[in-house]
Write a structure and sequence with these properties.
Elements (H helix, E strand, L loop, with lengths): L1 E9 L2 H5 L7 E4 L6 H9 L4 E4 L12 H7 L3 E7 L2 H4 L5 E5 L2 E4 L2 E8 L2 H32 L21 E6 L4 H15 L2 E5 L2 H7 L6 E4 L6 H6 L2 E6 L8 H6 L5 E4 L4 H11 L4 E5 L5 H6 L6 H10 L3 E3 L3 H4 L6 H21 L1 H18 L2
Helix pairs in contact: 2-3, 5-12, 10-12
GO molecular function, one term: ATP binding
Keywords: ATP-binding, Kinase, Membrane, Nucleotide-binding, Transferase, Transmembrane, Transmembrane helix
């Protein structure tokens, strides 16, 4: 196996996505590659992925590597070598068997992850899932006790200008299958015109569909400058102690943002904000709601999400995966039937309309004269 191509590097895969081009080699440091990261790399049409961490650590069955292999993206784990100290963006490297070369000098030893290798690792991970689940539950219960004020209403929620009282609110997270789910509920969005909240990159997800977010909420690490400029309000998720690293970026852009100190995830506080502001219904797209989702985000529990969903549950509709439940397809027989149905009134009109019948008789006479018959 040999390949020669330029590289792009970033220890955060989501930061790399916006910079890497088709045909380049992605060098990442991403333990347990998740589905969202894999799909993003596939969309960018990378030639190969070289991971400085274990693509499948064995803690749980992450599906990112399988998606990469199904899309014929070469995947390697680094066995030996520190690529982030040696390479820079644009360097031309060569993959030769299980070696990575720069200027004909070996800089790393690689392990190729074939289909069979990925499947074997996933089988081992499946055997560890019960152990990981037990740890996850213990962590969730421990942190739920510590974060109980999160649901008891003792948070100081910032004042906002967007009116949500008795309105429907759509909270969009750029999670797995967000594009398909948004496409499925797009008629609902156009008809009901809900208040649009983008959670970090969820704001750009809305822009993909020509929708401008009313509010962007998050730590501001994965939303574009364009989206921040276009949206109507910005809420920066801060640590419980008030420290908000994301506010510096907002200030550099010359924008204003409210700070929301809270534990948990940004999607949690987005739902809590909508609930506090009197939303009649909260529709969530792309959110994280199970153990695998949270392990892929590097979280060891889901206490805040568990508590928030307990609180807002009566108003929450989770649209994640709705595209798999319902798919509207136009089959060829439907088109034929529609065409026949459209012809029926035309045929009836031809038979009952005297002027049209006379017109056809005139055309028939002219055709016979032209043909001499």
């Amino acid at each position: 196996m040999e390949m020669k191509a330029p590289v792009k590097l970033d220890k955060k895969t989501k930061n790399l996505i916006g910079r890497i081009n088709e045909g380049e080699i992605a060098i990442i440091d991403h333990s347990d590659i998740d589905e969202v990261a894999a799909n993003s790399l596939i969309t960018r049409r990378v030639a190969a992925v070289i991971n400085c961490s274990k693509s499948i650590s064995g803690r749980y069955p992450n599906l990112g590597p399988s998606l990469l292999k199904k899309s014929n993206v070469l995947l390697f784990d680094v066995v030996k070598g520190n690529l982030f100290n040696v390479l820079k963006d644009g360097d031309i490297v060569e993959i030769r068997r299980n070696e990575l070369l720069l200027d004909n000098t070996t800089i790393a030893t690689l392990e190729s992850l074939s289909f069979d290798k990925v499947n074997d690792l996933l089988e081992l991970a499946e055997q560890n899932i019960e152990v990981e689940l037990e740890k996850f539950i213990d962590n969730t219960l421990t942190y739920a006790y510590e974060e109980k004020n999160f649901i008891l209403g003792k948070l100081v929620i910032p004042k906002i200008e967007t009116n949500m009282n008795n309105k429907q609110v759509l909270v969009v997270v750029r999670g797995q299958n967000y594009q398909e789910d948004l496409q499925t509920i797009f008629p609902y969005i156009k008809e009901m015109k809900p208040v649009l909240i983008g959670v970090d990159g969820g704001g750009d997800a809305l822009l993909e569909f020509g929708l401008i977010p009313d509010i962007i909420i998050g730590d501001m690490d994965s939303v574009s400058d364009r989206c921040l400029t276009l949206c109507k309000e910005i809420i920066v998720h801060a640590y419980p102690n008030g420290d908000a690293p994301g506010i510096d970026r907002i200030k550099r852009l010359g924008l204003h943002g409210e700070i929301f100190p809270a534990p948990g995830t940004s999607e949690d506080i987005a739902m809590l904000l909508a609930y506090d502001q009197g939303a009649d219904l909260i529709v969530a797209v792309g959110t994280h709601s199970n153990m695998i989702d949270f392990l892929e985000k590097g979280r060891k529990g889901m206490s805040s999400t568990f508590l928030v969903r307990l609180k807002v549950g009566s108003k929450l509709i989770d649209a994640k995966g709705v595209s798999k439940l319902y798919k509207s397809t136009m089959k060829i027989e439907h088109v034929v039937l529609f065409f026949i149905a459209a012809l029926i009134p035309i045929i009836i009109l031809l038979f009952i309309s005297q002027p049209i019948r006379n017109l056809f008789k005139l055309l028939t006479i002219r055709l016979r004269i032209f043909l001499g018959i």
